[in-house]
């Protein structure tokens, strides 16, 4: 039982801390017209966009991630009232 409790505490402590990206220099914001033409955009709708954003942000080749709501008809979706939107990572 103590081993199970210790593993649970360890998992909770490590949640979201397994990947840390530290850029040497942070590039200025890139306007749409200045983007590298070889870059592509993908949107993934998952359970928790904050955790997914952290995971995708650690992948090699990913330049930027943004968490938000995708699809749906509500003008301003919020956490408490998503309507028909899905939590997503771009």
UniProtKB/TrEMBL annotation:
Residues 41-90 form the Peptide methionine sulphoxide reductase MsrA domain. GO terms for molecular function: peptide-methionine (S)-S-oxide reductase activity. The keyword Ribosomal protein does not apply. Belongs to the MsrA Met sulfoxide reductase family. PANTHER family: MITOCHONDRIAL PEPTIDE METHIONINE SULFOXIDE REDUCTASE, PEPTIDE METHIONINE SULFOXIDE REDUCTASE A5. Coiled coil: none annotated. Gene3D superfamilies: Peptide methionine sulphoxide reductase MsrA (3.30.1060.10). Keywords: Oxidoreductase, Signal. It comes from Nymphaea colorata. GO terms for cellular component: cytoplasm. Residues 1-19 form the signal peptide. GO terms for biological process: cellular response to oxidative stress. It is an enzyme of class 1 (oxidoreductase). Pfam families: PMSR. InterPro entries: Met_Sox_Rdtase_MsrA_dom, Met_Sox_Rdtase_MsrA_sf, MsrA_MetSO_reductase. This is peptide-methionine (S)-S-oxide reductase. Its EC number is 1.8.4.11.
């Amino acid at each position: 039982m103590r081993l199970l409790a210790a593993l649970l505490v360890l998992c909770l402590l490590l949640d979201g801390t397994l990947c840390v990206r530290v850029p040497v220099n942070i590039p200025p914001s890139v306007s749409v017209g200045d983007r590298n033409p070889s870059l592509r955009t993908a949107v993934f709708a998952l359970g928790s966009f904050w955790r997914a954003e952290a995971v995708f942000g650690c992948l090699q080749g990913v330049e930027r991630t943004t968490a938000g709501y995708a699809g749906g008809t509500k003008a301003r979706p919020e956490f408490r009232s998503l309507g028909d939107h899905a939590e997503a990572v771009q």
